[in-house]
Amino acid sequence: MVWRKMMGCACAPAGRLLAAGLLLAALSWPAAAQDDVDSWRWADDGTSSPYAVAVFGGEGTERNFSETLSNPFANDTTSDRMLALAVTRELAWYRNMLSFEVEAMYAYHFDRETYSEFGGAVYARWHDFPWNQYLLTTFAVGLGPSYTTIYPELETQDNPDNRSRWLNQLNLEATFALPRYPSTSLMLRLQHRSGVFGTFGGVWDASNFLVIGLRQHF
User: Fold this and answer.
1) In whole angstroms, what separates CA 122 from the centre of its chain?
2) Which one in 45, 52, 138, 213 has a CA-CA gap of 20 to 30 Å to 174?
3) Is a pLDDT exceeding 70 seen at residue 5?
């Protein structure tokens, strides 16, 4: 009950801000509509390398998503390890600042347990950073389904009945590339699986992997 009251207090001002933002957007739409139409383009229109392949790997952590996000360098990794291959395809761009892409991923998990993971996600990627002339940087958020061939021990809940092979993945990713070699980038990712507040099999926070890899556009 206390948690619900706190959430209600927090959501009320956020709701008012959202409503105000929507109102401002509606008022400005007639003037900005043509600019917005001209600013959007499909990835095939002027995109030299809409496809990319990424190879990455890392270790799991016992912390939940928020704890991992707030302190990603804490030394509390588990014996759960993964190697993954992902293929992405850009879909659309907005003003060379924001791109949207889809990803198909296969991950091999090993050490404590051996199993496979299959995932798909849609990503929104921000490209416009002030230091890009020195280091090309992107930041992306991805969302989509994930399936594992077993019930991983890392994802065990307090209630062992709360489990599911199908879960949602929410991934946060940053890439870094030299301007001289823009097609090859270093990739850092927080790979997260969860049940979306119990939607999938009663699962809440399931697993978090911190991974590093390389991404190649072509």
Assistant:
1) 8
2) 45
3) no
